[in-house]
Amino acid sequence: MSANADRPPVIAPGYTPATVTDKISAVVLNKTPRWWYVGFAISFLAAQLLFITIAKLLVLTVGIWGINIPVAWGIDIVNFVWWIGIGHAGTLISAILLLLRQTWRTSINRFAEAMTLFAVAAAAQFVLFHTGRQWLAVYWLFPYPNTMGVWPQFRSPLMWDVFAVSTYATISALFWFVGLIPDLATLRDRSKHWFGKITYGMLAMGWRGSARHWHNYETASLLLAGLATPLVVSVHTVVSFDFAVGIIPGWHATIFPPYFVAGAIYSGFAMVMTLAIPLRKVFGLEDFITMRHLQNMAKIMLATGLIVAYGYGIELFMAWYSGNTFEQYMIHNRILGPYGWIWLLLLLCNVLTPQFLWLKKVRNSVLGLFFISIIVNIGMWLERFVIIVTSLHRDFLPSSWGMYTPTRWDWSFFVGTLGLFFSLMFLFIRFLPVISIFEMRGITTGHDFEEQAGEVKP
Amino acid sequence: MSQIFNRSTNAIARLSIWGAVFILGGVGWAASILNRSAYNTNQGVTVKQPVPFGHEHHVAGLGIDCRYCHSFVEKSASAGIPPTATCINCHKLIWSDSPMLEPVRESFRTGKPLNWRKVYDLPDFVYFDHSIHVAKGVGCVSCHGRVDKMRLTAQFPSLQMEWCIACHRNPEKFLRPKDRIFDLTWAAADQETLGRDLAKQNHLRSTVALTNCSTCHR
Question: What is the CA radius of gyration of chain A?
């Protein structure tokens, strides 16, 4: 690959399988650093906000939020779409880049997959708790032979959404866990404490690194990659159907599926970047998560960001081209209406900011990439707000127009899910290897990892 | 590397995978059984009443028509619980000093109604109207069972929505001629043909209309 000659390497030179294993497993097996306690405490405190809000919500139901008629979907759904979208980078990295044999994925796939799982867990809170009567949500969401003799409406995209998201969660969890097994065996063998030995031992499911084990592992991960690949596209397509099938101007558009999928990958890579940059710093993993990774992710962000910008452009164009009064008013209201400033902010975050990624200098600046990734995360949240709230608050009949203001409980729920996400993330980076050890061993010398994965010590 | 686990843990690991499937399946099965049991639905459960009124005696023994007491059943949503005066019509002459009937006489003396307890307690979000069911040809027995055999009145069906909707989907299986509505023992010779004819004759609405949410949940 001569084109790659001038690019930074995927892994810093001079590493052998043994030093890679030492370095990554040390993160888990060494003493807990002080900053971890601080970070986890803050996240866990924020997670308590989630539980307080849920308790309040169970007693008083969704009236504590700012939703109303016409804006029956507020930032609860904004947050749901935002979290689900973030998860997509993990699946893309672990499935599609695996099938395309992109070796640079190796150092980021493990925690990107973890990020996917935790983002889906955060998104699930909104799905479950926005239903209002959560104890009835079982039969609203899942088709099971209930005593009412009726099934949920299978023609509704909301029903498809339940399947899309639950399949997504299941496959992501399986993929993540199967990929962890060889590394869990490494941790089992290196753990000094009996508790660590037993816990990692149970999770490693008897992995001994035999040829048969590796064969099973390879088959399983290839099958799961095959199953997960369509999910990268399908999950957010179905999420976009939640809107596109509705007839509200601003929702009822055929561009939605590709536009949503691109947005999801865009926000997902932004989140991977937001997490990877501090992570490599605090654990000293700059040799494994190199500038090459950050640059590659920056390029993906730029590409998907342009697709998203194209989506915004098409929405404007279609409003004019359709000649439809309501579509035209929707765009007019989006730009000049009471929420117009959010639309403007969205353009600044999502369209203008990523343009800096054209510059090599910016792609080489860790700090610059970190800030851009955070701005894109904010921008993608604003995008969902614009789509959901500004479309709903003024539809066809001026007599049914209204305004929406999130209450403090709307915000506390959102901050709470951030707390949940980061708490899980902190637990993950402390107790599991953040980078796939056995796959990194594979790229140290350029051989396939099967040949040198003999973790079994006599 | 020392051996952490005994060989037997392999068997336990395999067992736990199967066990998880069976335990989850078992919990689901138990929940569905419990949900449909009388413990949850009160199906077949008698309710304690101020006076132990026996339908068997009054209907089968004496041959009183349903409408003698439940007099609005053809005209209103409620079939009607008879006022104490209806009881007294007969009981001023027969069993007029039975101690069991003292609450009835007391109610008549004071004008304070008897506190009959509901046996068929539908949820408040269900709209139900007796008159339309009678008018379209649904007999008493279809929902209330053989009350002529009930010494104390019990809830005959489960009253779960699957029970309601089974008839709303296929009403022709239960329709009967006008003059057989209050007949608890009658059964059609050929229900299939009769039901189809009656559905047409009584202008039953389509299954789509009958199973529309707002038909019962208004």
Answer: 23
